[in-house]
Amino acid sequence: MTTRPDEFIATPTLTGGHVRLEALTPDHAPGLLAAADDDEVFTWQAFARPRTLADAEALVDLYLSKPDAHPWVQVDLASGEVAGLTTYYDVEPALRTVAIGWTWIGLRFWRTGLNTDAKLLLLRRAFDNLGCVRVVWHVDILNERSQAAVTRLGANREGVMRKHKLRRDGSWRDTVTFSMIDDEWPAARRMLEERLASH
Fold first, then answer.
1. How many Å apart are CA 122 and CA 181, to the nearest integer?
2. Where is 58: in which H helix or E strand?
3. Lateral strand order in the sheet of 97-105
4. What single string gives the DSSP state of each residue in 125-190?
5. Global model pTM greater than 0.85
6. What are the pLDDT digits (tens) for 55-82?
7. Which terminus of the chain, N or C, has less C-beta within 10 A?
């Protein structure tokens, strides 16, 4: 499959059974503020929970200013509410690789199927539309919940990058790297589709 490099950084609208992913714009700031409903959601993020509209606008600016982040807003189909954010980053068209991350959703959307559906949409785009051979996740070694969630997607734990980043509190973060490759995608896709069908 030959895919133009610009297609890797495009953020088209993607719609599943639980969620719609749409390109992030400044107009999404109020919805993101409403979605940021609990401090727990932001425990492992590089940024603090937005508490005012100005905070939410600054968060949108942060996502949009990252040159290698290509963000989508996650919209809950059942309610029409903005649920959170997710991105492709570390996009390498020549190597047919993307990373998925900078993801968060409001606490009230946890365990609803929304996050699994969003990941399925992003994986389908990566493997089926862009022809990726590898998708990557980077997770704080202390964030056991996210590590378990990535593992449930069918990704494999590759290793640990020690003292990889600084956390918000100034402590050093070891980062666990996970990946899924194109050979593993068909089985993972079937598993995720079956999980969502029975949700």
1. 14
2. helix 53-65
3. 14-15, 19-23, 69-76, 82-92, 97-105, 134-140, 172-181, 156-166
4. IIIIIS--SEEEEEEETT-HHHHHHHHHTT-EEEEEEEEEEE-TTS-EEEEEEEEEETTTHHHHHH
5. yes
6. 999 999 999 999 999 999 999 999 999 9
7. N
